[in-house]
């Protein structure tokens, strides 16, 4: 059913090493993003909270859903952790021709296989960024369920959501780690989200997790820390 897509994503899943000498690799899904325009370098309370849970440990397994970024690879591995990268939005575009296909059970399962095929309890943290806004309800529910299984108890995820739930189109960004409490934010363009959320709907979305904590930024993004 998905023959052409199988060839497109036939790449190895290897972590990007432990420490600066670790091997590169582990990114799946070729990026089709346009050149980003740097918007700002700013403090991030959500990122600071995320790193406060892992910086005194080593050998953890972290997943970055924003695609392979050398800055993020270097930062995470220099802390002594393994990093997996998935270009979540690129694989989303390749798997689903339009939003209506995001309710197709077969395509949903295929997408999960390409992006979140990790054993239960494999991940010690996930940098989700803003990718969940572009998923229709059936696909979003399946992704949240798979994340809930893949992360270890007491681990943390960091996700971003636009705070204005009435917008027709929103900026979409790439996020590069500058410091444990600072991000470089680059705008890719404008994109219509499949869904927008307020605090209450986010609490419901992550209802199976232990806790949800919000920080509001000047880009009108909610930085959300989700504890498994």
Secondary structure layout:
Blueprint: H1 3-8, E1 27-28, E2 37-43, H2 45-52, E3 61-64, H3 70-78, E4 82-86, H4 88-95, H5 105-115, E5 123-129, H6 137-150, E6 151-162, E7 170-179, E8 182-191, H7 199-205, E9 211-216, E10 221-227
Parallel strand pairs: 1-4, 3-4, 3-5, 5-6
Antiparallel strand pairs: 2-8, 6-10, 7-8, 9-10
Helix pairs in contact: 4-5
What does this protein look like?
- It contains seven helices and ten strands.
- It has 228 residues and is of the alpha/beta class.
- Strands 1-4-3-5-6-10-9 form a seven-stranded mixed beta sheet, with helices on both faces. Strands 2-8-7 form a three-stranded antiparallel beta sheet, sandwiched between helices.
- The longest helix is centred in the middle third of the chain and has 14 residues, at 137-150.
- It is globular and about 45 Å long.
The low-confidence parts are 1-12, 17-33
Summarize the helix and strand pattern as letters: HEEHEHEHHEHEEEHEE
Q: How many E-type strands?
A: 10
β content, as a range?
25-35%
Order the strands across the largest sheet as they lie in space: 1-4-3-5-6-10-9
Mean pLDDT: 84
Largest sheet: 7 strands, mixed
Shape: globular
- What is the tally of helical segments? 7
Rg: 16 Å
Distance between the termini: 35 Å
Helix content: 25-40%
Secondary-structure-derived class? alpha/beta
């Amino acid at each position: 059913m998905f023959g052409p897509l199988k060839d497109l994503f036939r790449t190895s899943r290897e972590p990007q090493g432990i420490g600066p000498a670790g091997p590169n690799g582990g990114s799946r899904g070729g990026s089709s993003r346009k050149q980003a325009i740097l918007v700002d370098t700013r403090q991030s309370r959500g990122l600071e909270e995320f790193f406060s849970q892992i910086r005194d440990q080593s050998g953890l397994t972290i997943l970055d859903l924003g695609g392979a970024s050398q800055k993020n690879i270097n930062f995470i591995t220099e802390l002594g952790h393994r990093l997996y990268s998935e270009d979540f939005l690129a694989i989303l575009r390749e798997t689903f021709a339009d939003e209506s296909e995001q309710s197709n059970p077969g395509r949903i399962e295929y997408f999960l296989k390409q992006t979140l095929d990790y054993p239960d309890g494999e991940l010690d943290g996930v940098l989700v960024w803003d990718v969940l806004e572009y998923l229709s309800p059936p696909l979003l529910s399946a992704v949240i369920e798979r994340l809930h299984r893949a992360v270890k108890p007491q681990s943390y995820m960091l996700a971003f959501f636009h705070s204005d739930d009435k917008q027709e189109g929103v900026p979409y960004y790439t996020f590069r780690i500058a410091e444990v409490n600072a991000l470089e934010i680059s705008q890719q363009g404008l994109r219509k989200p499949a869904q927008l959320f307020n605090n209450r709907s986010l609490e419901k979305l992550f209802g199976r997790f232990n806790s949800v904590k919000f920080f509001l930024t000047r880009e009108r993004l909610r930085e959300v820390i989700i504890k498994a």
